[in-house]
From TrEMBL:
InterPro entries: 6-blade_b-propeller_TolB-like, SGL, SMP-30, SMP-30/CGR1_Lactonase
Active site: 194 (proton donor/acceptor)
Protein name per the record: SMP-30/Gluconolactonase/LRE-like region domain-containing protein
Record keywords: Metal-binding, Zinc
Organism of provenance: uncultured Thermomicrobiales bacterium
Length: 280
């Protein structure tokens, strides 16, 4: 695609890094002072809550609650639809969260969370948060700044950005809860990959913190360029990405270095996500 096929919208946000699709296709984003925004594809937005910290990645459950990785508060915060904020997880007993970065739900309601650790410190990890908040550390073997996450459609693999590899790996997830060793999907020398999203054809979309590009990775591992913004205007420092809208065909891009989101219409829909309902 040409960069001209993407367009900024929802101007005036506070340097959004995280962007997510709600259960009805709505857009949510976070801000550098802990803001949680609900955004229409027409560009209208409202702030629906705040953690008071620094929001990175986020996702939602079936009741419309937002689960936000908060860098400043070292925790995943749950923001209820009425704006009430509670701590959902601050790490496992053996490893408190340091730099929680991105969350994703599986079909059983488990929340996988990347903790990036420190830049080039090789001290990151992954967590699995059981429904209710019980947390275990599962991924110390992917320590090179784990960042964006995405689950395969069948739930058999968790895909992980390792920004300091730099590249993408995947972890086999067994039905008994065990996690296999990382398998390299693609390496991206001289890039800093950040966000991930699958479409319904199994193509993995990868947004890069630098340079300002979005790639696609085929199921066979072939890499091709979706779009590039060498001027850093339409999307600048593209971090998280999400397929949004009622048909999940609108790819929304968060630009950490800007004050807007960007959108582009895709020829295929994004992979459906999991929105568990916990009865709360």
């Amino acid at each position: 695609m040409r960069i001209e096929e993407f367009a900024p919208f929802a101007d005036g946000l506070d340097h959004p890094e995280g962007v997510a699709c709600g259960p009805n296709g709505e857009v949510y984003a976070g801000g550098e002072a802990g803001q949680i925004y609900k955004v229409g594809l027409d560009g209208a937005w409202e702030q629906v809550g705040s953690t008071g910290g620094f929001v990175l990645g986020l996702c939602l459950d079936g009741e419309g609650a937002v689960y936000a990785c908060d860098l400043a508060l070292h925790a995943v915060k749950r923001i209820a639809p009425d704006g009430a904020v509670a701590s959902y997880s601050s790490g496992s007993p053996e490893r408190p969260m340091v730099s929680p970065n991105y969350p994703v739900f599986d079909a059983a309601g488990n929340l996988y969370v990347s903790d990036s650790g420190s830049w080039k410190g090789n001290d990151g990890a992954l967590y699995r948060v059981r429904p209710g908040g019980e947390t275990e550390t599962i991924g110390t073997r992917v320590s090179a700044f784990p960042n964006g996450l995405a689950l395969a459609a069948d739930g058999g693999h968790l895909y992980v950005v390792l920004s300091n590899l730099p590249g993408i790996v995947r972890l086999p997830l067994a039905e008994d809860g065990t996690v296999g060793p990382p398998e390299t999907v693609v390496e991206l020398p001289r890039h800093v990959p950040d966000g991930l999203a699958f479409d319904v054809e199994g193509i993995l979309y990868v947004s890069c913190y630098t340079p300002d590009v979005i790639y696609r990775v085929s199921p066979g591992g072939e890499l091709d360029l979706l779009a590039e913004d060498w001027e850093g205007v339409t999307f600048a420092t593209p971090t998280n990405i999400a397929f949004c809208g009622p048909d999940r065909r609108t790819l929304v891009v968060a630009s950490l270095s800007r004050w807007h989101l960007t959108k582009g219409e895709m020829p295929v829909a994004g992979q459906p996500l999991h929105y568990p309902r916990f009865g709360g």
